[in-house]
Amino acid sequence: MNILAFESSCDETAAAVVRDGRTVLSDVIASQADMHAIYGGVVPEIASRKHIEAIAGLAGEALRRAGLEKKDVDAVAVTYGPGLIGALLVGVNFAKAAAFALDVPLIPVHHVRGHISANYIAHPDLEPPFVCLCVSGGTTLIVDVRGYTDMEILGATRDDAAGECFDKVARVLGIGYPGGAPMDRLSQGGDDKKYVFPQVHVHDAPLDMSFSGLKTAAINLIHNAGQKGEALDLPSLAASFAGAVSDMLVPRVMEASRRCGHGKVAVAGGVAANSRIRRDLERACAQSGDALYLPPLSLCGDNGSMIGCQAYYEYLAGHTADMSLNAYANRDIGRG
Fold first, then answer.
1. Residue 309 gets which letter from DSSP?
2. Over residues 195-218, mean pLDDT
């Protein structure tokens, strides 16, 4: 089954062709990161306009690279939430038009479910059930993946997403946007014990997280040093910050895995590319005996292949849509 898939939930327009949920025939992405870097973050109106400009061309390029023609497409899939509503609407409306014109099923895909399924592409042996840590600029969740389309949130951030914190601290430091990769590079060789950041524990919800205090503490440290004319050890600041984020994430996902008893832990989303978090998870899983599934860096960020992969399993579960499909800025992962 050849699925033409689209992803446009934030600032990257992506199209891919995926066969039978596991084989990526093509995957093309038009990134807007350089444009939004001028503003230190994504400008929703600009993102939507750039999606409009790019998506038709990417659809044709995805088919060309896959060696397919329009008649070879068996279904069209699209991210319909969560994300920036204007950006999502571009992808949803284009996918609806494509499915209608090609007379094939339309498959709506939850963005975070897509990130989880990137692991199926990277690890053909991976099958549910497993626990997945989903960390990105907009989401931080611990998910019990009981089946390909049967998922339950076990823990979540109460405020900021982990990736958002990296972005905002990087912006204050003036080292670039998106902030994850620059912060990771800066942290190499730093002393991760030099700066102490707060750790939050949510009463009666031990798997939940909170990052706003951590972000505020880091920004205040930077601003106070600047006002006093004091020099900061920036590599150590970045290393200490990454360590604090990892200390918030890793023990909780390992506790979730212990409770569920699946013996398998996966990671998904843009922050899954962070070297400190990957290293700490490898260490923790080696101690617990859990099998760890890490996506390659190329599949951590937003892409079309992850949407095409998850769409295959949504289709098998009978989750298709008609031309009334809408986009949603917020959407529970359990609702698909």
1. H
2. 93
